[in-house]
Specification:
By secondary structure, this protein is mainly β. It has two domains: about 130 residues, Immunoglobulin-like, CATH 2.60.40; about 70 residues, no CATH class. It contains no helices and 17 strands. The strands form five sheets. It has a five-stranded antiparallel beta sheet, with no helix packed on it. It has a five-stranded antiparallel beta sheet with strand order 12-11-13-17-15, with no helix packed on it. It has a three-stranded antiparallel beta sheet with strand order 4-3-8, with no helix packed on it. The protein starts with 7 loop residues before the first strand and ends in a 12-residue tail after the last strand.
Length: about 250
């Protein structure tokens, strides 16, 4: 980010802006994104170990316009030490690309690049990712790769294939996307929706079942297929004697 990060402070309410590649079509959807961020640093007592800090920097809000996300933080400054390595950013509830990125005719394999812009609120200090960071993104690491996620020289391979179809859960009444709120003592209606309907999709059927000792579906199983071209409503229920709690799948 800068030449010397030892005790460097980015103050005056920094915020992060992310420009997603054109394969994403955020303006087609209504959704509420969220994010969590961690600061990865080297352990001063063991430089081979990376520590993740989730408390020093926390997200206050995430908003979007077209294909850009704006992330604001609760803290008014970010302090870097010489042990700083990178940010680990996790973003939730985003629509996937509208089409598969692998196209042999167009000779494309991945999405276009993601752009990151970290700056303070008065725009006096700006740090951004450079366009040449993924110049060698298609070149394999030589002689050996580190792991299955880091197989090439720079950056990851952002690939989306709609031939592997995805099922989303929708709440049309409350405009929620892949979020389920269950009330005790009553059935709540949601919808299974196949995200992609392409001619390349095989005529397959998937069965959705819920195995849980508290949460129950109205039907024992639901059949979902990409060729049905319709939403599949389902009902989920929790016994009225259960106390409220947070359940994450």
């Amino acid at each position: 980010m800068v030449a010397n990060l030892d005790n460097y402070t980015l103050d005056e309410s920094p915020e992060l802006n992310i420009t997603f590649p054109p394969e994403y079509k955020f303006h087609w959807f209504t959704f509420t994104p969220s994010a969590k961020i961690s600061i990865a640093t080297l352990n001063p007592e063991n430089l081979k170990e990376i520590l993740y800090d989730d408390q020093t920097l926390t997200v206050s809000s995430v908003s979007y316009i077209w294909n850009k996300l704006n992330i604001k933080f609760n803290q008014t400054s970010i302090k870097f030490t010489k042990f700083y390595q990178f940010f680990l950013l996790r973003i939730f509830n985003l629509p996937a690309p509208s089409d598969n990125t692998v196209d042999n005719n167009a000779l494309t394999q991945t999405t276009w690049r993601f752009k990151f812009l970290l700056m303070n609120s008065n725009r006096k200090r700006i740090f951004r990712s450079w366009s040449n960071l993924n110049t060698f993104s298609r070149e394999d690491l030589i002689p050996t790769k580190y792991n299955n996620f880091l197989t090439q020289n720079k950056w990851l391979k952002f690939e989306f294939d709609q031939k592997k179809w995805v099922v989303d859960v929708l709440d049309k009444d409350n405009q929620k996307f892949n979020q389920i709120t269950v009330m005790t003592g009553r059935y709540n209606k949601y919808i299974f929706k196949v995200r992609n309907t392409s001619k390349l999709l095989r005529a397959r059927v998937a069965q959705v079942q819920l195995v849980d000792n508290k949460l129950k579906l109205l039907e024992s199983k639901y059949d979902i297929a990409p060729y049905l071209f319709q939403d599949m409503p389902f009902f989920i229920w929790l016994d009225c004697n259960e106390v409220p709690w947070t359940y994450i799948v």
